[in-house]
Design goal:
It is built from eight helices and 14 strands. By secondary structure, the chain is an alpha+beta fold. The strands form three sheets. It has a seven-stranded mixed beta sheet with strand order 3-4-5-9-8-7-6, with helices on both faces. A five-stranded antiparallel beta sheet has the order 13-12-11-10-14, with no helix packed on it. Helix 5 (about 140-160) packs across helix 7.
């Protein structure tokens, strides 16, 4: 109902009476007043007068009713330990495809290999529950799909060139702006679910001495609308889900790759592999060429770009 009230207020530049809202939404004027009061507590500035209500400004919070088409699928937390943990519990209980867990901040956000992902207010942190009908062998494509969607959104809304570092990082000018973590629950030949966690340094500020990380705010010199960014990103993800098993997805990733044609060191399962990254295969695994000309396929691992 809050979302419907906001939609009605945003469609009017002047005041909208409580009586009109009541008739439009089919609830009492007392209920309208209670919802307005709740919205004010959330940070919305709404003027009230004998003529009705007028929306003056909205907070840049990722509240469910800011996404009316998705509101029923969103689980929102001002602060949580980890959106990945919450999404896992929901997925195990049968949460449908497209369920989203969003947090304004995480106290125990994590990246790959259980590393800590700092998640202060101002970022965009969410986990998306997917139930793709694919073989588990092709699950790494989901990382590629999500990273391509993030890069496309950055270009579309911010006008910045984003590059992709295998397997799950998005870079701006060589600095990490987004990390992606996919966790799969599968049987031998069936994927039960894949939860895709995405953490974006949006309106956070990065210390000047930090040379490996950036944020959209620092790259642009201004803050962005996190609501607009997340809304656009979810659209890009949905579009590319349809291409998950298509060659076009891999080609798009290759064009954006900061890893291909670089000498890299991969730390994988306790083993170090060094070589030139020459391609990715159909599953999304990285193909390396060693100094002796031999080829090696790496499914997972930490990728370090070596200096040229």
């Amino acid at each position: 109902m809050k979302g419907q009230i906001l939609k009605a207020l945003r469609e009017r530049s002047d005041y909208l009476s409580g009586e009109t809202l009541s008739e439009q939404l089919g609830i009492s004027r007392v209920s309208i007043w209670k919802h307005i009061r709740s919205l004010k507590k959330d940070g919305y500035v709404i003027e009230a007068s004998p003529r009705g209500y007028r929306l003056v400004s909205s907070p840049d919070l990722l509240l469910p009713y800011e996404f009316p088409d998705l509101e029923q699928r969103i689980h929102y937390f001002p602060e949580i330990g980890s959106t990945m943990d919450a999404a896992r519990e929901l997925a195990k209980k049968g949460a449908e495809e497209g369920t989203i867990v969003i947090a304004e901040a995480q106290t125990h956000g994590r990246g790959r290999l259980s590393r800590e992902w700092l998640s202060p207010e101002g970022g965009i942190y969410f986990t998306l529950v997917l139930r793709p009908r694919i073989s588990p062998a092709y699950a790494p494509r989901i990382n590629l799909m999500a990273s391509v969607a993030v890069a496309a959104t950055i270009k579309k809304l911010c006008g910045l060139k984003a590059e992709l570092k295998w397997p799950n990082d998005v870079l701006i000018e060589g600095r990490k702006v987004c990390g992606i973590l996919a966790e799969m629950d599968a049987e031998t030949d069936v994927v039960n679910f894949v939860n895709v966690g995405i953490g974006i340094n949006a309106n956070t500020s990065v210390p000047q001495f930090e040379k490996t990380v950036t944020s959209l705010k620092d790259a642009l010199g201004r803050e962005i609308s996190r609501k607009e960014f997340l809304s656009a990103l979810l659209v890009e993800i949905e579009r590319r889900q349809a291409l998950l098993m298509e060659a076009d997805l891999l080609e798009e990733w290759k064009k954006l790759s900061a890893t291909l044609n670089k000498d890299v060191r991969i730390m994988s399962l306790g083993e170090e592999v060094i070589g030139q990254a020459i391609d990715i295969d159909a599953t999304g695994a990285l193909i390396l060429k060693g100094q002796d000309g031999s080829l090696r396929t790496v499914l997972v691992g930490d990728c370090i770009h070596l200096r040229e």
